[in-house]
Give the backbone structure.
Amino acid sequence: MTIETKVISLAQAIGLDVKTLRTAQGDLTSLSTTAKGSLAAAINELFTALDGAGASINDVSGNGDTLVVWSANKVYNAIEAAKVAVKSDLTGAASAAYDTFVELQALIEADETLTSALSTAVTNRVRYDAAQTLSLAQQLTACTNIGVGDPAHDFAADYSAAKV
């Protein structure tokens, strides 16, 4: 059984579960709103009702509190803090001299030993732009390295076992 066949089998199993979930979601006519033909219209009706009831902004609540409304300023500050955190994660707290991709590019271009080592590493990569012939051991290593694992593994069986 090829990986393609296994992925198709997995997709078919997931599709069956999606059909089951759609059946279980219920009849929209049982909604308490007047907009019974569309979930989007029902949500909009609820939004209008809440807005008319004086829903207020609560900037005291923390991240992840989905039952409150934040001001634009609180949203902006949360996004700015997330940007700083992502940059820190990407640069690994590198010094200011090497905390941008342009600075790292200049460092790589200036160091021929590093450039040679990187060139060798690139030569030993699994290509996606051209066909390659790999031994079974190389195939297993490549699949393991990209998180696929054993190319002969039966994913549909794992999925079926997990949903029981």
User: Anything to note?
Assistant: Residues 3-24 form the longest helix (22 residues). DSSP finds seven helices and no strands in the chain.
